[in-house]
Amino acid sequence: MHRPTSLIARTAKAVVLGIWLLITVFPLYWILVTSLKPTSEIFAVPLRYLPGSPTLDHYRELFSFSSFGTYLVNSLIVSLVSGVVVTVIGVLGGYALARFHFPGRGALMLAYLVTQMIPLFIALGPLYLMMSGLELLNRLSGLMLVYVAMLVPFSTIIMRGFYERIPTALEEAAMVDGCSRLTAMVRVVVPVMLPGIAATFIFGSVQCWNELFLAIAFIDSEETKTIPVAMNSFITQYDIDWGPMAAATVVSIIPTLVLFSFARRYIVEGLTSGAVKG
Amino acid sequence: MTAVREIGSRGRSAARAARPAFDGRRARFIALCLLPGVVFVAVFTYYPMIRGGVIAFQRYNLFDLTATPFAGLENFRAVLADDRFWTALGNTGIWVFASLTFQFVLGFGLALLLRRHFRGRGLYQAWVFFPWAMSGFLIGLLWRWMFNGEFGVVNDLLIKAGLVDEPIGFLSSPGWAMTSIIVANVWYGVTFFAIMIIAALQSVPRELYEAADVDGASRVKQFVHVTLPAIRTTLVLIVLLRIIWILNFPDLIYSMTGGGPAGSTHIATTYLIEQVQNGDYGKAGAVGVFVLGLLLSFSVFYLNATRFEKARD
């Protein structure tokens, strides 16, 4: 920003950044390497930092002995559908909150913000009873309903933040040209906000992809398990079969890695535009 | 035509600001926009949360639902009489404080290093920020494997570096288990702080630094007198949010130690989840209400102590 930096300072900075990168990446590398080692090598001392004879056996085992393919599809359905619904709701609600002053607006914002602070776990028991009463246990649709509700406050507040950066003149001009407000919003404002919309969608989907406790509470059947539920059932108290577990971890990271690399910039922007949920 | 009329009414903005035009058409549009979200949140978030609060005062055991009488403070008494709860509460304090401190310091450092543009910064951030997109559950598994007492890579590296002679049972000894989950959480959470602080740093007007340069202020002085005051409000807020979030983050502990060994890594939230899994919703509700009360009083105290409102002016 100012003042030229000395060579020593620059080198020191590069070294520190390098070390932190190593610390961040190493665990991911290690789980990948583990997943590629034959079982005998996983449990061999001294440890090998590169697989001696790499194999895809654990991946094969995962998909042939467990129905990991089904879980994967379930997780994809739940994440993508919830992500879409939550984004649409956020696009609508955010618009109303950003563009209109109406009675109860402040209260609604507060009500949404509060959900980000109260531990959802208080609701876990009652939610289970509700789901069971509505016969939504072991159904992907039930899980999606709850995920959407969980993410609505976040998506709405984030979208509101994005709208506020866009001048009102944009849709006003469209409305002068004869568009209704809804048409003006969909045709003119939404296209401008596509990066923000994409970020909201990706963030929502990733949250659903990762969610564990609601899923293990509501889902118990082989047909509707999502990946976290399935992986949780691989864990028994004292024994984990680390080969397939490592493979499962790698498989379940890949979609988030892909989405994240697309949307990183927008997510960082969106996160810092007001609403925050770690 | 109606659109034109609406624009026209917008032109009279002074009148609108005082008493917003609230015709039926506009109200219908607002309702249409907000209804789906409000319904979802009311039914699937607020209702069960409030119900959870009520259940805290009922005798509510999933395995005996023949009667769910009002039980007054019985659940709270049961929770407060449970030694495991007190251990969990103490652990919650350690877990939050230690995780927060290290995440904050390291995150701040990282943000300062990443503040200025350099070649490859985008790519660097993509890698370094990635853990944030992973689930706490997976991160727990990752570290559970790395901290494995026999085949864990952490032990191997420590022995290679000559720091220890014998493998440490990181997750099997109560003292080490807490340290281990905190290390994993710090690894995970530094990114969040880094992202937020970078954004805050970038919002500080350049002119402030230029003026400080003219005055000949040193780097350290600039940091203390320009940077810190400028981002103080953001810092106060993200620290509070982070405290709440770390407290409500059982995922990592759940998959890493399951609260063990011997309850030594249970925090309030994992303890609550254990009660839910035991089917004792009454006791779970009581823990929830207790934690919520604690959080609220802490937030009020914290915002007061940091004179947050004043800082905003």
TrEMBL record, chain A:
Belongs to the binding-protein-dependent transport system permease family. InterPro entries: BP-dep_ABC_trans_perm, MetI-like, MetI-like_sf. Residues 72-263 form the ABC transmembrane type-1 domain. It is a multi-pass membrane protein. This is Multiple sugar transport system permease protein. It is found in: Cell membrane. It holds the Pfam family BPD_transp_1. Keywords: Cell membrane, Membrane, Sugar transport, Transmembrane, Transmembrane helix, Transport. SUPFAM superfamilies: MetI-like. PROSITE patterns: ABC_TM1. The chain crosses the membrane at residues 12-32, 71-98, 110-131, 143-163, 184-204, 242-263.
From TrEMBL, chain B:
It is found in: Cell membrane. The keyword Nuclease does not apply. The chain crosses the membrane at residues 29-47, 94-114, 126-146, 176-201, 222-247, 284-303. CDD domains: TM_PBP2. The keyword Metal-binding does not apply. It is a multi-pass membrane protein. It comes from the Bacteria. Its main location: membrane. Keywords: Cell membrane, Membrane, Sugar transport, Transmembrane, Transmembrane helix, Transport. Residues 89-302 form the ABC transmembrane type-1 domain. Belongs to the binding-protein-dependent transport system permease family. This is Multiple sugar transport system permease protein.
